[in-house]
Amino acid sequence: MIEGITIYEILTVTTILFFIGVYGFLTRKNLISMLISVELILNASVVNFVVINKYLYPDMLQGVFFSIFIIAVAAAETALAVSIIINLYRQISSVEVKDTEVMKH
Fold it and tell me: Hey, what's the torsion of the CAs at 63, 66, 68, 69, to 10 degrees?
């Protein structure tokens, strides 16, 4: 572990990041802001995987492999979401959630 920093402090920071992401996702009306909030949630979980793995099993790398997998899935999700948002913006010139009813048809 990092000298001078306990696991509780790291888990507290990642919990705060997670709930900031949840709050941002629930309160934002812009699709880009919501996407950033989802990324913040995923990054908080990645740090949790690495820290808990390093704390419980210092010689094994399963938490790191799960983290790399989560980062890859998050990158694919971001690329897909940004392409959908760009297509939506070209159609209706807005990225607000209330204007996304165009995609229903």
Answer: 180
